[in-house]
Amino acid sequence: MDIAKQIIDQRIYKIIADNPELFFHEDIEKKRSKAFLLLGVAAYLDIDIAEAAQFITDGGGDGGFDAAYIAEAPDTQLNVILFQSKYSRNLDKDSNFPANAIEKAVNTVRCVFDPASYILLNPKSKEKVDEIRSFILDGHIPFVTFVMLNNGLPWTQEGDFFINNAFSGQEQVHFVHFCHTDIIQYINRSAPICTQLSLSGRAIQENFNYKRVILGRIAVTEIYQLMEEYGDSLLEKNIRRYLGNNAVNDGIIHTLEDTAKRPNFFFFNNGITMICEKFSYNALQEQNWIVKIDHLQIINGGQTCKTIHQTLKAHPEIDFSQVYLLIRLYEVSKDEGIIQDITYATNSQNPVDFRDLKSNDERQILLEKSAQDLGFIYKRKRDNILNPNAIPATVAAESVFAIWREQPHLAKYKRNEFFDRYYNDIFNTLNAAQMIIAVLIFRYCDTCRKHTSSNKQIQAHHPYSQHFLAYIMGKLLLQKLNISLDTLTHQNFEAVYQMFISLKEQMYSQAETQLSKLLTNYFNCSDLCKIDGRTMSAAFRRFDILERYLKNPQWWDAHFQ
Hints:
The chain is an alpha/beta fold and 561 residues long. It has 3 domains: 3-187, Trna Endonuclease, Chain: A, domain 1 (3-Layer(aba) Sandwich); 195-353, no CATH class; 362-560, no CATH class. Helix content is 47%, strand content 14%. The protein has 24 helices and 14 strands. The chain has helices spanning 3-18, 28-45, 49-52, 99-112, 123-137, 157-167, 180-187, 220-230, 247-257, 265-268, 302-314, 336-346, 355-358, 362-373, 393-402, 408-411, 423-427, 432-449, 456-461, 466-481, 493-523, 533-539, 544-550, 553-560, and strands at residues 67-73, 77-86, 141-150, 173-179, 195-198, 204-208, 211-219, 272-276, 278-280, 290-294, 297-300, 324-331, 378-379, 391-392. The protein has a 5-stranded mixed sheet with strand order 6-7-12-8-11, sandwiched between helices. It has a 4-stranded mixed sheet with strand order 1-2-3-4. The chain has a 3-stranded antiparallel sheet with strand order 5-10-9, with no helix packed on it. A hairpin with a 2-residue loop joins strand 6 (204-208) and strand 7 (211-219). Helix 9 crosses helix 11 and helix 15 (393-402) packs across helix 18. It is globular and about 80 Å long.
């Protein structure tokens, strides 16, 4: 029996045991399938299980995808990662990803990303599709990665036929096979990487402020072998999510595939930046150094490396041995400060998830310690420990941004910028008491959102309004306590917490009702059920609901006194 499959199956049962609220009344086989999906999504996106749960859409009427990750990107680009999962109970047998599932996924892409196409969906899937289509109608161009997740083999040539027949020459759609062995890399990602790299031609080694650097040229085949062996574990300090086909990555692919451009790849690419604790080489050798490296990490160029790996894997018939790119290798020991500075300075090709870079920020450390004193666990760093009661830094950022920073219209779609563009806005002056209360409010709204309301007016906005409802509840809570946000500290935390527990149902109901009334005025329509999902979703991405109503003292006092 495949040991990797056993490990994954064991991990699945632990996920079920640790997160009972995610599985409701499903039978054990459905629980196993869903737990595998959660683990696969968490591994591919490199996030926690609790974070992965918000992207799950599986169930009857899911539209051909089991999970969806949506991220707005610069230049009106929309990155969408869809997942379809197949978990085999037979751990002794390897089976291919079904060809009919590939065909279904192809049809899903054709339908979902065409706003004119009709598709019958369950509420979770409908919410995601409405969001996607509202972006498209606003002029965003989608780049789609469809992840086919299983604990077996990739699809056969029949599956390739469906993909190529539909998207041959189409730059916006990319299909990826992701399986149990890939997930194992995620589980075991913390192991230090000690390896060697073969440079081509002459290289330069210099000393700067007692730190050493090598500048040289490396064949893309070396990068391929490196990624093949270590995968995403090389990117611990770099980008966490592969963005799939986007403008930058498409350019890399085209250059590598183009016979005329391929020899000049070195000049068309920014190169990669690596760090290590120590490197050594034969200094008596003039060229073609073999560099031995301890604790290797890629801090810039992760997208380039992943794209190179995928392109070379897709074209075994092409000789890439004479295709090179620039490499910068820094020996920086364990100096986290210089590592962060280098990473910030060199990451410019693609949007970066900066959570890891901020994890050692003083504010993050203080939040962790303060939350612990209040009886809560704050996870400033990623790990593989499953704890449904812990607060991941990303969830904290999203909650605070929506509620206390009064940006619910941005909080849902700007997750990639929480620890970059909006970091200071979110975390400056934030204390643990404020953070915890925000998370409790946000999670309560998320739980309520999953239940169908008997009120059709409320149900019409339910899939899209979570961040706004959380914002309203936060404002109501402070109002009922007659305190300002800056006076919410560890000293009155328990009183605020108890007030929230006792009034949460009342406040949520009030928020739902008043938001429904607000929307009837906003749309000038007494029946919100007549408003299509795309229009409703788009409304919650704009600021005018906030400015015209929720931040307007006259409107607020008239509806919440």
